[in-house]
Amino acid sequence: MIPSVVGFSGDEEFSGTQALHQAVRNPKNTLEGFRKLIGKKFEEVKVPSDVTHPDMVSKGGVPAYKVTFKDQEHIFTVPEVVTKQLRHILEEAQTYLGSKVTGAVLAVPTYFTEHQREVLAKSAVDAGINVLQIIQEPVAAALAYNFGQSHPIKGGVQDKTALVLDMGASSFDITVLSVRAGIYTILETAHDEALGGEAFTEELVQLVAQEFKKKTKVDVTGNKKGLLKIRTAAEITKKQLARSTSAPCSAESVAEGLDYHGSINRLRFEIACSKLFARCNELIEHILEKAQLTTGAIDEILLVGGATRMPKFQSKVRDIFPETTIRVDEESDEVIAVGCAAQASLIAGFEKEDIIASTKENITVTPHTVKPIGVVGANDQFFTIIPNHTPLPAKRIFEFGQTADGQQEVYFALYEGEQDPLPPKKEKVEKHDIGSDDEDEEEEDLPSKPTYHKTTLLAEVVLKDLPAGAKAGSLKIEATVQVDVTSKIIITLREKKSGKQVRAESA
Ligand SMILES: Nc1ncnc2c1ncn2[C@@H]1O[C@H](COP(=O)(O)OP(=O)(O)OP(=O)(O)O)[C@@H](O)[C@H]1O
Ligand SMILES: [Mg+2]
User: Which keywords belong to this entry (predicted)?
Assistant: First the structure.
């Protein structure tokens, strides 16, 4: 993993880990967080300006960093910094591989605009990278987890729906993604910039600052440099707390020459972050509501981003989805890169035009069914023909028979389905005892797959004059249901023996 950091010190320019290491010593010349500024105008960017951040100025309307390099003031625009970072990544990759990198797949957040993609592509080209394709981060995650794709041994693609939960440093991004016949479609996205790993570190910084004050009587809250030292220490402590229930935290010369040496237990950290965790839950519930999905309709949860390693985060997700498969990768912060690499190896031999054509679909949210479309059986039971969240146009063909001897007419109707209400949730009491993240889940009724009942009649048709004297079930009637991109429904019924057929459309 190469952190997205670029730094300058004396006559030297650094990238990645080396740049990160000088961050505390030389914060004015350490550039971080530029990835999300790609393609933005200077006015759109909120720039913190103090002793712990580099100065930012506008250069031709584009945000740029003012740094000291080789004893002179230099101004580097965001795209220029991105180029420096990408060049560094390219060099590292070539050193590691011992060969030239011939092409690369890049991933961007779902909320990146076309313009942002173009600026990124240009920065990459300037860095000497042959950009094969730019894909969306959740799609890269799905590829890395091989979500819904054929199994190397069992084979067979599957139609499924995933919730991708990506918590990185600066935001929490959620995506509902479906896979139908191996093709990914992004159905819904939600995004909260107040909920990244940094927000969690910040809570820990506040905790440590309080402790420091208790121990030394020195208030560090207004001291930006002191807080930066605590933040660097807290970042390490936070990561350790993912593995153990308590972790040391040490920072030297925080304020007035005084050090801080202490230890933080996980429970305290989690309580301090309880509002943040609650907000994560709200965002998950919000996106499910927006997508009109219940928890049971999610087949898999794909965890992405370093901050999803927090045990409390995982146990909260488990609480919301008691039954769903949660895919976690030890290296959750590398999942997107792995997905890009997989895609690159897949398309390396393709023609450029084919690659572009194959990915246009991913750029915007494709039209899709919102509610399931189905037929009604005995006892008014609803059977789904085309599930909700199926990309349009869609087509399904199936066969059925007449139900009575001598029946010469069949009636066929399609309805929209509405989900049946779920049984009420049991009240949950949050317990706060150390190390019992996993045990504090109480017995709960597990929600099963959602069931539906019919609501609106969408289209109906009668196929008449069927061959006389046929026994129940002996005739084969083929139904073709098509839904076009405007959601218009077309039904065709055909009796296979006589070839008699009828067609109807929705209003
Ligand atoms: N073990 C851990 N426990 C808690 N947080 C962690 C752990 N490991 C990494 N993190 C946090 O994950 C974040 C970095 O994750 P990641 O590398 O996925 O972010 P990013 O993709 O660079 O950021 P963004 O998606 O916001 O642009 C940091 O805030 C880091 O503190
Ligand atoms: Mg990320």
Answer: ATP-binding, Nucleotide-binding
